[in-house]
Each structure stands twice: as structure tokens, then as C-alpha cells.
Amino acid sequence: MKFFIFFSVVFTLASLLSIYIYRSFKRRFLGSYKILGLFFIAIFIVVVTAILIEKESLTSYFFISLLNCAVAVLFMLFFTSIVFDILWIFYKKHKKWQNLAFLTLSFLYILASFYGGLKEPKITQTDVYIKNLQTPLKIALLGDIHLDKATNDNLLSSLISKVNSQNADAMLIVGDLFDIKADELKDTLKPLKDAKMPIFFVTGNHEFYYGAKELVSALKSHGVRVLENESVEFKGINIAGVHDITGLSFGYMMPDINKTLNMINPKIPTILMAHQPRFVSKNLTTDVDLYLSGHTHGGQVFPFGLFVWLQQGYVYGLKKAGDSQIYVTSGAGFWGMPMRFLAPSEVAILNLKGAK
């Protein structure tokens, strides 16, 4: 039932977007707007096929991914249509040139988004100054990798290799590592053994969708230190981690910030891992020097970052959070559609230094 409701919502949204785009194309290109009608029919076929096929199958995964891409393209055409419709209201000259620019920019927008989604994550370097930090540390921050049935261990192996090349002291993964159940992992986690530094992990919302308890057990069996509302001392700092707030909806593995902070050593700096930035916004405390989050994908496709900011409060990068700081990674993968625009994926290297 939930599966059907999801696609009903997506289909309704796609219908409304298509109506607007249809009218926009009709005004610009006369008969050529009929192409959109065929595109919309194709989306309908994809939706029906995805619903009818068993949702756990790889075939269904293909159709769901195709649907996500189609809806994303609709959104991009919608935004482009709005921009040029507003332009037409204030400037009604050179209609042919405006229409040509509309087609060109729409095509480049979509093409660049697919190119950005398929690019390997870049390594970013950020200096973070922390009060009372005695020894500089290099932290590799990963998030939102979204390993699924269509990926294999090559993705994780590539990320581990990138982190190893940076000689990081520790790798911190802030959730949404999985879009797959534990019994389907096979050798997916095998590359973890090649990591040259300890790995710390906290759950994200997607872990709960695929069985958080079993996935956490799988990580522990591969030597990953899963922080379940707890804190550990590591090279002169506290590394703390809380479960994702999605646990509140599922009724297990719920976040407990108080339990976590009760375990820290107050004499040394504290880093707190929490998957969603909005959890950080509601739990700011002077006990934490640096919060680390993911979830936002940096907006993934501009201008979706605006909606992410409205919900989460933070989108990407190092920001001030109360009397502390927060770094939100744009993530190393993508979700839904293999697309990114003005929000590149990353392996974030945080160079922790003592505050001057």
C-alpha cells in the first residue's frame, strides 16, 4: 500500500508539472509541444510497470531509477520554464532567440546534471579550528554513499582508496551508507578491510528502511565502530555519535543525545556525528565543538538546495552552529537519480587544528 501511495503522489506531482510545462511549450513552439505528451505517456508506463513488478527485484529497481530520472527532468524543465516565462513578462522582444536559449539551457542543464551525478567524488580540504585541541588531526568524512543492488564493491573500494591516499587518522561515515538489505550485501563491504585507519559510523534514515539492526551488525562484523548513542576517546578528542531521528518513527534505535554526552570526557574537544542537520539545530550544546552531518546531498540538483535549507537549516560546508561549528558533507553518492548540479559529491577531508 505504501508503495502504491508513493507512486500515486509522484504521478500526481508529475502530472501537475507536465501541465505547466505543456502550456509553456505550447506558447513557444506550437506543434512541437506534442513531444511532451509522448514523454508524459512514457512516465505513466514506467510508473505502472514499477508498481506491477515486484518492488524488491533488480528489474523494478531499474524502472524506479528511470522514474526518478524522468521526474527530475520534469522538475528541471519546470524551473527553466518558470525562469523564461518570467523573462517573457518583462521582456517581450526577440522571442525566437529566447526560445532558442530556452531549449539550449534546458538541454545543458539536464546534460550537466547527469554528468555531475556520474562523476567520481572529489577530495575537498577544509581547515577546522577547535579550541583546546592539542594535536592536529586529519578526519575523512563520508556520507550518503547509498550502496544498492546496482552498485558493487568497486564504489566502496574507490572511496576507501581515496581516503587512504590522504593518510587520514580516522574515517567517519555519517549514515545512509545503504540502500540494500544486509542479506543482499554479499561482498559489498569487503573493501572495508583495506582501510588504513579506524572507521566510525552512525545510522542514517535509509538504514532504517532496509533493516538498521542487521546492517549495523554487518558493519560491526567488518570491524567498523558503530556509535549507538555513545562516545569514545580517540587521539585526544571525543568522537560521539547518535542514531538518526528516523528511529523515533520506527520505535527502535532512537537517538539519545543526553546519554551520548554523559559519556564524553569534558577535558578534551568533542566531535558529534548526527546524520540530519535538523537534529543538530534542535540539540545545540556547548559540550560539542564540532558537529558532523550529511543527508542533504548539498541539494543534489540546484535549486533543490533551497528546499533542503528550509527543512534542515544547513545544506553544505562548514558553518557556525550556536557556539559550535557544523560541517555538512554533500555526500559521496546520490539518491533517486544519478544527477547532481552545482552540488558535487565529495570525500571531505577535515584538517582539525587548535584554535588560535
From TrEMBL:
Domain Calcineurin-like phosphoesterase: 137-298
Gene3D superfamilies to which the protein is assigned, alphabetical: 3.60.21.10
Alphabetized UniProt keyword annotations: Hydrolase, Membrane, Metal-binding, Transmembrane, Transmembrane helix
Transmembrane intervals: 6-23, 35-53, 59-88, 100-118
Database matches in InterPro entries: Calcineurin-like_PHP (IPR004843), Metallo-depent_PP-like (IPR029052), Metallophosphoesterase_sf (IPR051158)
GO CC terms, sorted: membrane
Gene Ontology terms for molecular function: metal ion binding; UDP-2,3-diacylglucosamine hydrolase activity
Keyword GTP-binding: no
GO biological process, one term: lipid A biosynthetic process
Keyword Membrane part of the UniProt annotation: yes
Name of the protein: Metallophosphoesterase
Organism in which the protein naturally occurs: Campylobacter corcagiensis
